[in-house]
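Budget justification aside, the reviewers requested a transparent look at the raw inputs and outputs of the sequence design task funded under Objective 1. We therefore reproduce one unedited record. The lines immediately below are the structure tokens for a 436-residue chain.
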């Protein structure tokens, strides 16, 4: 055990002290924060300002278009040909021409400054709303104001009730985000650091360093120490990324909030209304956020995440180590990588289907199978999983790790000293049962 600890320390300290580790630890949070902050900042800086000349031949949409901070509509009662001829000498960025046929209104937009998709969508919605109001009045003698008074606001609250009668409120949206987010992190972690294990083994094998090392330790001890050591490196970097990303985003949010002119931006109520949410009571928003947080099984989620985070890596890390020991160069790994990575890729692909039916048969069995459970079970946990299912999945993952470690160890002890030979699956099968 002491020898394994020494190998773990060597693998951990060697990688943590590298410049590449320090650079990526600092650069990673900046890049992740930038992915969230830069689009918001660009959206604030690069808005679609349009001055639109409206020529409405139907006369149905006079004063129907509402001006905003970025859009200004001006109705002009001129011929469309005249408007087009004088377009480039006018202040207008676009001309909105609304004509009519026998059955419906038609609209064309001539521009010299490309309108954004939101601008076009707003114009389409306004025209559709106007036609809808006319038809309501014509066919049913109902005005829009009368219809707006009938404004039901239905919200379906999903409550889980177990066999003992205990009830727990769950939000499908929050569960989806948490489950899929955790699955993505585990998926990326396994690939990123699993490949590092494989590359480390290939490097030591190529440099013949391994011949010196295994003179004092068993090949299995060397493999296990390398896998665990790199796992700790990944966990360290991951925790630092979370801490640094949170700090950067918090600082950026304060800076952005100070830069925003409240008078020139829509209020929360206006944004929610534009998205079809109706009236929003912002006074209770803090309470609503707290209720959402209370719905999240934080302790179960964190413990499960750490278990599957490390368990999934250890399982796949052993297999990656076996691949590294069986080949002489990274170019030769492709034929062995595919069978190992297919279950992991498959689990990520079907994760979206599992989100739609987290209690289905496919979700259940994939969350138990060790090669897919790290991703699939993390998708299911936020939706609620029976304790026995979670414990069984963890137990099978541990058995899977032990099994893959045994397989990898058998391949590793022979392959680590094998040079200059193209390895086949038949050869690997012989190594599993080789006695020596």
């Amino acid at each position: 055990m002491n020898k394994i600890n020494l190998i773990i320390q060597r693998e951990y300290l060697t990688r943590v002290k590298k410049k590449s580790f320090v650079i990526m630890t600092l650069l990673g949070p900046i890049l992740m924060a930038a992915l969230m902050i830069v689009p918001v900042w660009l959206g604030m800086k690069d808005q679609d300002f349009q001055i639109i000349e409206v020529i409405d031949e139907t006369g149905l949409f006079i004063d129907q278009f509402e001006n905003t901070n970025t859009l200004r509509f001006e109705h002009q009662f001129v011929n469309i040909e005249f408007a087009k001829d004088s377009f480039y000498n006018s202040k207008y960025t676009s001309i909105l021409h609304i004509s009519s046929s026998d059955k419906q209104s038609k609209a064309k937009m001539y521009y010299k400054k490309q309108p954004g998709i939101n601008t076009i969508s707003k114009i389409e919605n306004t025209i559709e709303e106007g036609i809808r109001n006319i038809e309501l009045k014509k066919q049913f003698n109902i005005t829009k104001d009368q219809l707006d008074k009938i404004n039901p606001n239905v919200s379906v609250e999903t409550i889980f009730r177990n066999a003992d009668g205990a009830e727990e409120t769950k939000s499908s949206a929050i569960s989806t985000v948490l489950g899929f987010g955790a699955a993505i992190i585990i998926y990326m972690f396994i690939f990123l650091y699993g490949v590092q294990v494989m590359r480390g083994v290939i490097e030591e094998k190529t440099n013949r360093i391994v011949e010196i090392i295994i003179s004092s330790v068993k090949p299995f001890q060397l493999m296990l120490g390398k896998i665990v050591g790199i796992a700790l490196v990944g966990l360290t970097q991951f925790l630092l990324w979370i801490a640094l990303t949170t700090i950067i985003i918090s600082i950026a949010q304060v800076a952005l909030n100070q830069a925003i002119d409240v008078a020139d931006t829509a209020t929360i109520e206006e944004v929610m209304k534009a998205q079809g949410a109706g009236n929003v009571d912002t006074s209770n928003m803090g309470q609503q956020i707290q209720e959402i947080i209370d719905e999240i099984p934080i302790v179960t989620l964190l413990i499960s995440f750490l278990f599957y985070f490390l368990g999934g890596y250890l399982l796949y890390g052993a297999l990656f180590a076996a691949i590294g020991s069986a080949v002489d160069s990274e170019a030769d790994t492709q034929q062995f990588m595919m069978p190992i990575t297919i279950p992991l890729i498959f689990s990520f692909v079907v994760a979206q289907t599992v989100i739609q039916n987290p209690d289905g048969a496919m979700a259940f069995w994939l969350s138990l199978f060790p090669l897919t459970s790290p991703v699939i079970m993390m998708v299911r946990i936020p939706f609620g999983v029976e304790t026995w299912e979670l414990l069984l999945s963890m137990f099978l993952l541990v058995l899977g790790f032990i099994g893959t470690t045994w397989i990898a160890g058998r391949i590793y002890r022979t392959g680590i000293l094998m040079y200059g030979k193209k390895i086949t699956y038949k050869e690997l099968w012989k190594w599993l049962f080789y006695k020596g």
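Residues 158 and 170 are 6 Å apart (CA to CA). The chain has two domains: 2-36+172-248+263-432, 50-149. Computational costs for records of this kind are itemized in the attached budget.
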